[in-house]
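Note to self: keep these together.
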Amino acid sequence: MASTRRVLIAAHPRSGTLYICRCLETLGLDVKHEKPATISVGYQEMLKADDYDLVIHQVRHPLNVIRSVINCAQTYKNMFKVIGQEPPKSYCQHRVTQSMWTWIHFNRAIAERAAWRFRIEDIDDEWPRLMQSLEVGPAPLPPVDRRTHHRRSPYRDMTSLDLWNLAPSLYEEMMTFAKDYGYEPGNVTQPCECGAGSG
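Structure:
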């Protein structure tokens, strides 16, 4: 039987949270995406993180997050509230640099509150630990489609070099931070296919 303690699985937008939410839904759990619930998955509830008994941090390779988030009408206002500041105006002039800045600072804000972290790319290995944290007992990873958004992004072929050309120092800061999560920049001249899900 599932625990009644409230758990927040928090992540930067487009880090695979919709995929994780759908996986948990198949288990019959009280879970919602970007809304309050026994288990909430997403970024919006970070504003009310104190209402939850446990915060788990979900991350995705920054290049894939940025490719996805700049293709949607994503609001950053709530993320800025969690971070406690807005990015420099120079970064706000381009959606890519704004997304690079929020990937660094929003993940850093979550990390300060989270009990532990997992990479969405490692979900097959991390699923048992997630089940243990949610106190639902052993359960296999459901066969849910990992492509939660099927529109082809015009930024799908964006490379690390594209990011570096826009803002070299910001890119270096982002990838230095990403290395703490086990991510590498990869070949800066080729598209990087890293990660499952995009919600």
